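Human:
Care to share another protein and its fold?

Assistant:
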Amino acid sequence: MTRTNHISESVLSLFRISLRKRTRNFSIRLSKKVEESHNMKAVCLHILSGILYRVTKMRTVDYANQFLFEPIGIKERTNFYAKSAEEHKKFTISKEPKGKVWFADPQGLGTPGYGLCLSADDMAKIGQLCLDGGMNNGKQIVSANWIKTITAPTHTTDEKFGNMKYGMLWWIVDDKKPIYTANGNSGNVIYVDEQEKLVVAVSSYFKPSVLNRIDFIEQTLLNLAYRSKCGLRHG
């Protein structure tokens, strides 16, 4: 089943290398002040939809379909626009599975920081792409250097986020191994542990806390996986 997934911003971060291939001097750099504080605004990501369209003449969803989703085996997504506040609210909090859509603005360009609907299997494919350095079936989909860049810490967040480190739209759980995650505000997570060669994807209903999802993965899911692995070794 496919449910509302708010890891759109992490997916968006994978686009930049393709944009640079198609433009000579196109680059977006964060100011030192922004890098040293954690104050991400979805509207900033929304502006990127307009920039993406201006440069490529492609809507965000079309660009994602052609250069990211299709190459790694994720089925095509289409725009979804809520015609009323009630329809918007239903899209956000409904527990019913959603279709293969990405929430869009009235112009149809997209809302890159919100509303991408993916299954856990789809999210695992994105995590595996990152784990494999941007490679999929022998093809370089995203630059390996760019994967390292977006998953490297730029600053440390405040107590509200457990003083976790933050990269370029990815959360850094452990920068030594490294372990990094894409965390959505609806309980959706892509968890990548490069040292253990491990990818975990969780798709769930609305759950506002970031930290308890990481705890659930590390203290429950991974413990069960490691016990099963040890059992197979000694069985």
Remarks:
- The first strand starts at residue 3 and ends at 5.
- Confidence is low (pLDDT under 50) at residues 1-6, 17-36.
- The chain has one domain: 3-234.
